[in-house]
Amino acid sequence: MHCENCSVLLSLIVLLWFSAWEWQLHGGAAAVTFAAPALTLRRCRPIRCTVTDAATAEEAALLRRAAEVADLSAGHTSPHPNFGCVIARGGDVVGEGFLYAQGTKCAELQAVEKAGGLARGATAYLNMEPGDCYSDHTAVSSLVQAGISRVVIGLRHPLQHLRGKAIQSLRSESVQVDVLGEDLQSKTFEDALKSCLMVNAPLLYRAAFRVPFSVLKYAMTLDGKIATMSGHASWISSKVSRGRVFELRGRSDAIVVGGNTVRRDDPQLTARHGGGHVPVRIVMSRTLNLPDEAKLWNVTEAYTIVTTQRGARRDLQKKLAKKGVEVVEFDILNSRDVMEYCYDRGYLSVLWECGGALSAPAISSGVIHKVYAFVAPKIIGGVNAPSPVGDLGMVQMSQALNLIDVSYEQVGPDILVSGFLQPIPDLSPVIPSSDKISVLDPTVSPFDTKIISFYKTWDPYGAFSNYSPHPIQMPDENGNNLTWSTMEHYYQAHKFVGVDNPLAKDAFEQIKMAKSPEEASRLGRKLQRQHPELVRADWDSAKIDIMYGALKCKFSTYPHLEAMLCSTAGSVLVEASPHDLFWGGGREGEGLNYLGRLLMQLRTEILEESSKTSVVS
């Protein structure tokens, strides 16, 4: 696949998308040859398109706008599915909204609130089908209650447990729903479709390949060097380019480097934007030949994970652990296993800022999806000066990997070349009509133990998470009810209750006013770590009761959540956090899973009370 044929490739994708056939993507990440995944073509219902060319162009522009709005939280919060909503009447935008972070007000509700009465009879444009938090129907209900008459959707939700559910719910409320490629067909929508795919590329790659979306970034000279023969590399690219790198970091859950980078550059790897999301730093080192002191071992502002092979340098592992650095051992350290581990941690997007010795095997294993190359107008020469990618075992130019959808941009004096090594997967399947869908028996054998895991709010049981967008009302020390945006806000703030110190009271208020549960958690943990004197003396013994009280309030306030919890009867509930070994289950079941245990306790109480009520009746 050659770069000069990128337009032909895109045309082919669009043709497949908008034809009277629907296709479904199969397969996973390929090896170095990157064989294209197979496409299965299926016959679908005739496509409906009744709008004029002018109206089509207008709708395409509004869908592109929805995708642009969806991306506005990038860098401020950890990566999450990006949702944008634009409400328009006769081509005029009357309301917009976007999901700021998991657990915050949905894009659709924000848009209808801004539109006010103008939302009635208007059309809503969504870059992707709603579905941030399973069992939370705010996105759909806000559109229905506002009187939206039609919804145009760029993509069906790529996650199986959410795909098609919001569309079905809207149609059941007599709202007209048109989905790109199903109900609308026109080449005019080509750019709109591309925008919708691009803004949620991390989610699409994660769903297709079961690894996070991975970007390889490097800066090199015109002669292809990333450092001089001595290893000196500060600076190849311009200050403007380095600013763009900080933006890329802010869009990532984690940054990966190798041991050589730590030894040679001693990087800090922060986003340096003065607040907002701070990615995790991941170091890959088989032998753990790393310095005892390094900037990455300072975890005050950013978390660090060191991955290594089992048994490597136990002495250094103990030293790192005392500094707060997490060490994760693998039987054989390799790029794919590390990315699968990052997938298990819930990461959507990972940025690789490594040298050629690590980038080559990462590319070979198929875990690198996109490349950002900053090319500086400099020449340094040197036969032994390092290049950005090590040996891939290629001996002929016909084996070269060609980027897809290549972009060129001047950034200060440098040129940024970016492109995909693998095409963006579109996982929207053919959804058969309801009369053709066979209903599976959901019951399980009483001798089988079913485990239900939850972690991120977009997981099938994500509503069980502390981050889910369900406000609760809890009494304060004086008996007055206070409203909390999420359980996480309430839990983190109560670390500082009852402490006779103005700073503790300030901490309480700061956490309560945090814009998202993610920020509340980050602030609460940071203050606890930096100012342990502000934490209440009985916290270790009180935190379980505090969490349980919040859980009881949450599930009694929202009947649909209580019904959802009761529907899991007979199953073991596991909070799947890989690093919180108190509330979560850990990576390999080593965690205490207290949140899962409290939920099961609450479920038992609810079911027993329901049983007593039934007997009395």
From TrEMBL:
One of its GO terms (biological process) is carbohydrate derivative metabolic process. GO terms for molecular function: 5-amino-6-(5-phosphoribosylamino)uracil reductase activity; diaminohydroxyphosphoribosylaminopyrimidine deaminase activity; hydrolase activity, hydrolyzing N-glycosyl compounds; NADP binding. Its EC number is 1.1.1.193. Pathway: Cofactor biosynthesis; riboflavin biosynthesis; 5-amino-6-(D-ribitylamino)uracil from GTP: step 3/4. It catalyses: 2,5-diamino-6-hydroxy-4-(5-phosphoribosylamino)-pyrimidine + H2O = 2,5,6-triamino-4-hydroxypyrimidine + D-ribose 5-phosphate; 5-amino-6-(5-phospho-D-ribosylamino)uracil + H2O = 5,6-diaminouracil + D-ribose 5-phosphate. InterPro entries: CMP_dCMP_dom, Cytidine_deaminase-like, DHFR-like_dom_sf, Eubact_RibD, NADAR, RibD_C, RibDG_C, Riboflavin_Biosynth_HTPR. Pfam families: dCMP_cyt_deam_1, NADAR, RibD_C. Signal peptide: none annotated. It is an enzyme of class 1 (oxidoreductase). Keywords: Glycosidase, Hydrolase, Multifunctional enzyme, NADP, Oxidoreductase. Residues 57-178 form the CMP/dCMP-type deaminase domain. This is 5-amino-6-(5-phosphoribosylamino)uracil reductase. It comes from Musa balbisiana.
